[in-house]
Design goal:
With 271 residues, this protein is of the alpha/beta class. It has helices at 2-10, 27-43, 57-65, 80-84, 112-120, 142-148, 152-163, 173-182, 192-198, 214-219, 238-248, 250-258, and strands at 19-25, 47-51, 71-74, 88-102, 109-110, 133-136, 168-169, 186-191, 202-207, 225-232, 262-263. Strands 1, 2, 3, 4, 5, 6, 7, 8, 9, 10 and 11 form an eleven-stranded mixed beta sheet that branches.
C-alpha cells in the first residue's frame, strides 16, 4: 500500500494532451472499470483510456511487464518472478462471486451439497427436468479455486466433472456469463460487478440460503469473495497514475461500491 501511495504522491500529475492509458486484466474487474472510466473521461478529457477484451489476470500482467499495457486490474496475487520484474500490487476491493443459471431455470437457491452432486454427475437435471449444463472455468482460474474451497468434497467433485468428455470450459469472465445465458439449463459463476454492469439475462442463485452482496460478503455469511487489485509496472505512466487517483477518490470509490465492490483500499481513512 505504501509503495502505491508514494508513487501517486510523487509522480508528476501533468499529462500531455490526448494521452492514452491501456488497461486490461480480469473480466469482472474490467466490468467494474467501465462506469469509472466513463466518469473519469468527463473530468479528464486529455486522457483516453482504452480497454480491449479481457486477457485475464495472468495474461495482462505479462503484457504489463512487456510494456504493452499501462495498468492491470487483477484477481490473482502476483508471482514472485512478476514482483522481481517490477510489478506492484495493491488490493482495491472485493466483489462476491455469484452462482448463476440460465434465465429459464426455476430455482432461487442452491446448496453446497447440490453443487457437489452436480459436479460429480449425481444430480443431472433441474426441478423442471431440464438437463443441467455446467459452464466451467480453467482449473487454474481464480473462480475455480474459489469454488473448490466451498467444501472438502468440491475439489474431488470438480475434478470428476473435468474428467467427463464434452465439458464446456469458458476462458474469460464474459465468456462464462454469456455462455450460461445462452445455454439451456446452464450453470456457472461470475462476479457481481459483471451482473450489475453488463446485466446478462441469467438467474441469480443464493448459496445455502444466503444472497450474495457486499454486505453479506463483509459480514462473513457469504463465502465466495473475489479480489480486485491494482497492478502497476516499471513503465506505468503519469496518465495511468491519474486514473488510479480517480479510482481512489470519493467519486471513484462510490462508483465501485454502486457496482458491487466493497472497496478496502484505505478503508480506515474513509470511514
Amino acid at each position: 500500500m505504501y509503495y502505491l501511495v508514494a508513487m501517486l504522491l510523487f509522480t508528476p500529475g501533468i499529462c500531455r494532451a490526448t494521452e492514452t492509458v491501456t488497461v486490461n486484466g480480469s473480466g469482472s474487474a474490467l466490468d467494474m472499470m467501465k462506469p469509472l472510466i466513463a466518469a473519469f473521461h468527463k473530468s479528464n478529457k486529455n486522457i483516453h483510456v482504452v480497454m480491449e477484451k479481457p486477457l485475464g489476470s495472468s495474461g495482462a500482467v505479462k503484457a504489463l511487464l512487456a510494456g504493452a499495457l499501462d495498468l492491470v486490474l487483477s484477481s490473482k496475487p502476483l508471482k514472485p518472478e512478476e514482483v522481481a520484474k517490477g510489478a506492484r500490487q495493491q488490493v482495491y476491493g472485493v466483489t462476491p462471486l455469484i452462482i448463476i443459471a440460465e434465465k429459464n431455470v426455476r430455482k432461487s437457491d442452491i446448496t453446497t451439497q447440490e453443487l457437489e452432486d452436480i459436479y460429480r454427475g449425481k444430480m443431472t437435471a433441474w426441478p423442471n427436468g431440464e438437463t443441467i449444463r455446467l459452464v466451467m472455468r480453467p482449473n487454474e482460474d481464480v473462480d475455480s479455486k474459489l469454488l473448490s474451497k466451498l467444501s472438502p468434497g468440491m475439489v474431488t467433485a470438480m475434478n470428476t466433472a473435468r474428467s467427463r468428455s464434452g465439458m464446456v470450459i469458458a476462458v474469460t469472465d464474459p465468456e462464462a456469463y454469456h455462455t450460461v445465458a445462452k445455454t439451456a439449463g446452464g450453470l456457472g459463476a461470475t462476479g457481481m460487478t459483471s451482473i450489475i454492469v453488463e446485466k446478462p439475462p441469467v438467474t441469480l442463485l443464493s448459496l445455502n440460503g444466503i444472497k450474495a452482496s457486499p454486505k453479506t460478503l463483509v459480514g462473513g455469511s457469504y463465502p465466495l469473495s473475489k479480489e480486485i487489485s491494482i497492478v502497476t509496472g516499471p513503465k506505468t505512466t503519469s496518465a495511468a497514475n491519474t486514473l488510479i487517483k480517480f479510482m481512489l477518490s470519493p467519486q471513484g470509490r462510490a462508483l465501485a461500491t454502486a457496482n458491487g465492490v466493497h472497496v478496502t483500499f484505505g478503508a480506515a481513512a474513509h470511514q
